[in-house]
Design goal:
Helix content: 55-70%
Number of strands: 3
Structural class: alpha+beta
């Protein structure tokens, strides 16, 4: 886990397609209330709220009260951990593909 003292692992939080969809929706808007997020899913308010809680525990979502409404926004900084992990393997595969390409070129000669 990163420096945010997260309660939940970021990889675990994004493992669910519904949570990835919530992240996408929040990335496209500055802030969204729960009822607008719930309208995007074929599940109830309680289920969406549970997914948001998991994302909050991973540090990916921040919330604030505005009157009786809770508004949510994305905190993308924990996604850097995933970006770094993917970048490492991207470099790994690029290097291996270059080596394979060299090997094939040598065999053609």
């Amino acid at each position: 886990m990163s420096e945010n003292n997260q309660l939940r692992d970021v990889y675990d939080a994004i493992a669910d397609p519904s949570r990835r969809q919530l992240i996408r929706l929040l990335a496209e808007a500055e802030e969204l209330p729960l009822h607008e997020l719930t309208a995007q899913f074929q599940m109830g308010r309680t289920a969406v709220s549970k997914h948001l809680t998991i994302l909050k525990e991973a540090g990916l979502v921040l919330d604030r009260k505005v009157g009786r409404e809770t508004r949510f926004r994305l905190n993308a900084s924990p996604l850097r951990e995933i970006q770094d992990w993917v970048a490492f393997y991207s470099k790994f595969w690029s290097t291996n593909m270059l080596n394979l390409n060299k090997l094939l070129e040598e065999e053609e000669e």
